[in-house]
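Predict structure. Chain length: 317.
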Amino acid sequence: MESDAAVSLPSSKQVTKPSFWKKLRGQTASDEKPIGYLFILPASLHLIVFIIYPILFALYLSFHKWSILKPDKPFVGLGNYTKLLDDTDFWIAMKHTFYFVAGSVPTGIAVSLIVAIVLNRKMRGVYWFRTIFFLPVISSTVAIAMVWQWILQPEFGLLNFLLAKVGITGIKWLLDPNWAMIAVIMVSVWKGIGYQMIIFLAGLQGIPDHLYEAAKIDGASRWRMFWSVTVPLLTPTLFFLAVTSVISSFQVFTVVYMLTEGGPLGSTDVVVYHIYDQAFKRFNMGYASAQSYVLFAVIFTVTMIQIKVMKRFNYEY
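Prediction complete.
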């Protein structure tokens, strides 16, 4: 009888169904934490509304003759893409974009590496110098472009004033088709030095000191240590900056818009500015969307080529 009574007593470890609020706080036996989904919900909504939806809608527009000024928006299939094949202005803009990429990416990486090596030393005020070089990165591109418009002004600009002091004739930087793109590249490189410098500094400070000490014992010069120790160990960092810099350079817009607006004589008309011109000046949204997807295909192809080169060096991005 006593054993039957003991069996009939309710267990103190009786399993109860967790409440909604316990589930929300992640207090479940299966260790699932639904509250995490609430944390990522704002970012997910932002991603869907402002990135994924516009991308898909732009793809939809690229198959239509879509003009803001006309109510009729007929489906044209691949018509916008075939039209691009004969669009000389678009391919000239693409050539200008490749010119900008070829000029800005290697120059920016080289200058940033030199600055990073100099500022990686222990010297007085090094943190202030790093801050000064990084300031353009966090500054408004529009404001910086307006300052550079004054610096590059042909008659009373600061740069021509300094050149005149050393006996060099002033250059019409933003008014000469032969110099306008060089001026745009110069401003873009100057603005991006700080970001690339920080990445290089992180890579340089990750190189063990004993490797340099061993190289010194072997009698290696500074130049030999740079090529035999620094460069090989910085290769992943170089590849990372090369990929990201190429992608961002293909999308250059603000500097061109503020400094030259594609001029003079179309010498700085890059693809993104060309797309802007088609979409918001001529209101050909469908055709501009097709141009955007062609640019995406070009960037994707170039990036895949870079990644293939990385894999040949046994680095993964």
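Summary: Confidence is low (pLDDT under 50) at residues 5-9.
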